[in-house]
Amino acid sequence: MDESIALVPGQETLTPAQDALVDEIAERAIREVLGHGEIDVAAVNPFLSYVYETLFETKMPKRVEVVASPHAAFALEKELTGETLNELDWLGASDAGWVTFY
């Protein structure tokens, strides 16, 4: 990275060069987060296992589904169980098994 655009400790405002990059960096981040394509579940499972076992102190479920959104998770849950959830928690709808969406 070009050192002239790097943030420095204690910096409270962006320089003009940094500010000029804000939209480009935001668009790139959104593309990378939401445009992942196919997910290699075998590669992700060790990280999921760590989250379940370390943060939630429980074993990871035997079945993990990757869906497009929390709403898609609710639709899949209804399809699989016949139950409907009425509340959406973007950072941990535990009944749907979400760790996080973003």
Q: What does this protein look like?
A:
The two termini are 25 Å apart. The protein has helices spanning 16-19, 22-34, 41-55, 70-81. The mean pLDDT is 79. It is mainly alpha-helical and 102 residues long. It is elongated and about 55 Å long. The chain folds into 2 domains: 12-64, no CATH class; 66-102, no CATH class. The longest helix has 15 residues, at 41-55.
Question: Which helices and strands, and how do they pair?
Answer:
Blueprint: H1 16-19, H2 22-34, H3 41-55, H4 70-81
Biggest beta sheet summary: none
Number of helices: 4
Uncertain spans: none
Structural class: mainly alpha
Overall number of structural domains: 2
As a whole number of angstroms, the C-alpha radius of gyration is: 19 Å
Order of helices and strands: HHHH
Mean pLDDT: 79
What proportion of the residues is helical, as a percent range? 40-55%
Characteristic terms for this protein:
single chain; 102 residues; mainly alpha; 2 domains; elongated
Structure, briefly:
This protein is mostly helical. The chain has four helices and no strands.
